[in-house]
């Protein structure tokens, strides 16, 4: 076993030597570009030449602010990630991955790491970001993390042509560690530190330029301290896996060789009844049927319970009292039988996996197979020429920067010559040292000379042409142009249009050039996301709750792998938001890191709000209001109060209308009462009048009858008298 370990370490060291020799030229140029950006822009030979000419090796550094401006544009905002499941069943769970990625990004200080990657991208030609699992975080449960790596510590297979080095046979990360660093980062090394060999072979390139401010660029190795070379090698290998399609339970699995050996020995059940034959392969159903098989011997039927009326299992074949057609036979088999019968389809496939061989001081510390298909080391190539040695933008603008420095040096030399005028006098006319001292003084000076020995001649420098100053400014603009930065983007008001709309339009158009670089960076982040998804499914296997703080102060809580328990057995029968299964895609939203004009964006959202397309919350989230949630809450309360006031006003209006109606009805009622009273009075008078008339008529009839009777009696008397 020790021999195998030593052989692996030896292979890593041989590969490191080979890759180091292949990329030595690129590494030297990359470090020189980094020196150049950090004000070390003159070579020693140039400085000596300028000093002989009494010129100053001045540096008018345009590269550094230009690179910083490009970094500021590309990392103005935190990248936003979107995720989705590849299958319909994974869609809901897939949305969680974007929240998990935001959690990992914040946990790893992703904004800082991305800035360093972008800096290396512009200056050294390549940025490198690595994702890994830190098993000590979260109290030993582990966390997925990301961090940037110095590209000069990364050694890539020279034959790689892919932008992300996915076709590389090996990727190595090598650097020197002190004993304290090694033991702290890798506790396992403490037991082997005495057997490790120290190394003074610093593979970092040597500096080639000279700075006036003694800048420290790159790592410095102290020869008085022991150092151990750590080699972290990643290789792609092919492993045999099995693609399982269970046609019985409609489940799909990808199993390793060891898992497949366990899978084929798992139990399955054949159920035979008069209605036909059924198969059961899901674990819960199989466990229930196996318990029934053990209790009944595999043959049973059902009878109807006389008290409850429910069917009851009775061991043995079907009899007279059995429920007709209830006879059942159970046969316990393995899934291997179903594979042979074609009920379960098992295809052998070869899958890419990453092998990690980690050694320190000539000793092997780790040799593991990572359950991921792509390298956890992702490259951000700048000017990729189908090799792992991309060119940086600084390398393209170095000649222009050197031209600016030379012009600046000439201008300063000319100014120095102008303030120190040359004086030609006859030999012996006066003391030369006294003349130099007097002529060098500022202000008015008095110098005596002998006119008989000749007239002094003042020789002044020729004025510099204005075109020279223009060429210097044009050279600066050329640097910004090569980096894809418009003058307006770094606050130059001379290039701004006279109108607000024109300024906004120019700002948007200027971002199109740098967006080309952003697209490349986004694709690298997408590649990083693919690896992170696989690491997430390996790391977060238990229930976990994460909380994400949004820019507006709101907190989002996400729960993953929440178990579902059986009410009777208290066993886990499933999970809510199970992220350990399924296939998911995690991508960064294109252009999410670019800056945006706050006023133009707010105006755009306000137009959408006025059109009713979006709500007030979406508008507020696009502003810099700190307490968005509080504003929305207070706005909601105000709106509720306004609605209540409107409702009360409407009720008051209706009440007033009802009151007016009631008053009108009351007046009408009073009038009706008076009329009815008057009608009653009239009716009484009429009745009295009718009664009086009837009484008068009756009395009149009585008088008439009396008179008629008296007349008849008088007539009868007269008749009797005549007779």
How do the strands and helices of this protein lay out in sequence?
Elements: H1 2-22, H2 24-37, H3 44-52, H4 63-74, E1 81-85, H5 91-94, H6 96-107, H7 110-123, E2 126-134, E3 143-149, E4 154-156, E5 170-178, H8 179-185, E6 227-246, E7 251-256, H9 257-264, E8 267-273, E9 276-280, H10 283-296, E10 299-304, E11 311-315, E12 328-334, H11 335-341, E13 344-360, E14 363-370, E15 377-381, H12 393-419, E16 422-424, H13 432-440, E17 457-459, H14 466-482, H15 500-539, E18 544-549, E19 555-560, E20 562-565, E21 572-576, E22 584-588, H16 598-610, H17 616-621, H18 628-722
Antiparallel strand pairs: 1-22, 2-3, 2-15, 4-5, 5-6, 6-7, 6-13, 8-9, 8-12, 10-11, 10-12, 13-14, 16-17, 18-19, 20-21
Description:
The chain is α+β, with helices and mostly antiparallel strands. 46% of the residues lie in helices and 21% in strands. It contains 18 helices and 22 strands. It has helices spanning 2-22, 24-37, 44-52, 63-74, 91-94, 96-107, 110-123, 179-185, 257-264, 283-296, 335-341, 393-419, 432-440, 466-482, 500-539, 598-610, 616-621, 628-722; strands spanning 81-85, 126-134, 143-149, 154-156, 170-178, 227-246, 251-256, 267-273, 276-280, 299-304, 311-315, 328-334, 344-360, 363-370, 377-381, 422-424, 457-459, 544-549, 555-560, 562-565, 572-576, 584-588. The strands form 7 sheets. Strands 4, 5, 6, 7, 13 and 14 form a 6-stranded antiparallel β-sheet that branches. The protein has a 5-stranded antiparallel β-sheet with strand order 9-8-12-10-11. Strands 3-2-15 form a 3-stranded antiparallel β-sheet. Helix 4 crosses helix 7 (110-123) and helix 12 (393-419) packs antiparallel against helix 14 (466-482). The model has no long low-confidence stretch (mean pLDDT 81).
